[in-house]
Design brief:
abc type-2 transporter like fold; 2 domains; elongated
């Protein structure tokens, strides 16, 4: 009896060991999650972008109290401070334009002229915090600013609340988390459908020797890849319609479907199957296909701004995210569907199309189906 049980255990273990997919889900996937979430949340190094304009100057130098307040904000370690010149007459437009080049964080803290004088004479001073309410991280940032302000005020006068923060909205439309999340879900769906579809189809056709037989037909490699991409484009369109309809019906998400949205869906439908076709050239066994696809898609899901703003990532993770194709698809979809930023949507569409052309050409060059 003992030997038979041993035989069963041994047989199942060998089956598990021979399956690259099983090894991935049992060992590699948990480790991947630990690395990703540990890098994002483990060291508590998240920093928020905060634009600061100190108008309280004497002889072109900040007053001691205003500079002390800025130093107090810096000492929290919670902010990446971007200094806005005091002579900048329209700082709100400035930070909007600058933030679009980096991330969507648009928050400006203004220390007014006469801050030190007012504080010394009336013992009361106000600081204005302009926030883009469409940005999901602004509420957390405002809480930290308020806490830092209370701390600074207590240092000046333990018995009086003499410095306060006045919050001012710089956008009129209040975008909820679900509005932020829906474009990320669309991007994630396009990613997984495209990569897994291409890798799994090629793996299955390779095992059945179908790809090798295609070499005897007039079909070219680029035609085969474009045919795969065309199929994925149909699936992408279906996914887009279903997700947007569900978001509208259940959560009241309103999205603007325009030419940029169509362009981004086409770009993503070209891009992600193209990545899958490249990856398929390095995966010779069908069992390894899922593991290889997961190793590519999961880091992109978590780092490319699918579930939360990339601004909340540590600096090194932000840099890595900038090299991930899903980053530009997610940003472009939000620009087109939610934020109504056509210029930014066009930029991200062009980048995604350029990456798609690169991966499709690379996939056709790498594929040698006579040897498959």
């Amino acid at each position: 009896m003992r030997s038979r049980i041993y035989t069963i255990i041994s047989g199942h273990f060998k089956s598990w060991y021979r399956s690259k997919s099983n090894i991935f889900w049992t060992i590699a996937f948990p480790l991947l999650l630990i690395v990703l979430f540990g890098a994002i949340f483990g060291n508590g190094s998240t920093k928020f972008d905060l634009y600061v304009q100190n108008q309280d100057l004497v002889a072109n130098a900040p007053t001691s109290l205003s500079q002390g307040y800025v130093n107090n904000l810096t000492s929290t370690g919670a902010f990446s401070i971007h200094v806005v010149a005091a002579e900048q007459t329209d700082p709100i437009t400035y930070i909007k334009n600058d933030a679009q080049l980096h991330n969507r964080g648009q928050r400006l803290l203004v220390i007014p002229l006469g801050f030190q004088t007012t504080l010394n004479t009336t013992h009361q001073a106000k600081i204005q915090l302009y926030m883009d309410q469409s940005d999901q991280a602004s509420a957390s940032l405002a809480g930290i600013v308020n806490a830092a302000t209370v701390s600074y005020a207590a240092r000046l006068s333990p018995t009086a609340d003499n410095v306060s923060v006045q919050q001012v909205g710089i956008v009129t439309r209040n975008i909820r988390y679900i509005d932020f999340f829906i474009p990320g879900v669309i991007g994630m769906t396009l990613l997984t459908t495209g990569v897994f579809g291409a890798v799994n189809t090629n793996g299955r056709y390779r095992e059945l020797k179908i790809i090798k037989k295609l070499a005897t037909t007039p079909l070219s490699k680029i035609e085969w890849i474009l045919g795969m991409v065309g199929y994925q484009m149909i699936l992408a369109t279906i996914s887009l319609v279903v997700i947007l309809f569900f978001g509208y019906a259940i959560f009241g998400v309103t999205a603007t479907i325009d030419l940029y949205t169509v362009g981004l869906v086409v770009a993503a439908a070209l891009l992600f199957p193209g990545i899958g076709m490249v990856l398929a050239n390095f995966v010779k066994e069908a069992e390894s296909a899922d593991a290889a696809a997961n190793a590519i898609t999961f880091p992109m899901m978590f780092l490319a701004g699918t579930f939360w703003p990339r601004e909340t990532l540590p600096d090194i993770m932000k840099i890595i995210a900038n090299f991930m194709p899903l980053t530009y698809v997610n940003d472009g979809l939000r620009d087109a569907l939610i934020y109504a930023e056509p210029a930014q949507a066009l930029t991200n569409t062009i980048i995604a199309l350029g990456l798609a052309a690169f991966f499709i050409v690379l996939g056709s060059v790498l594929m040698n189906w006579k040897e498959e």
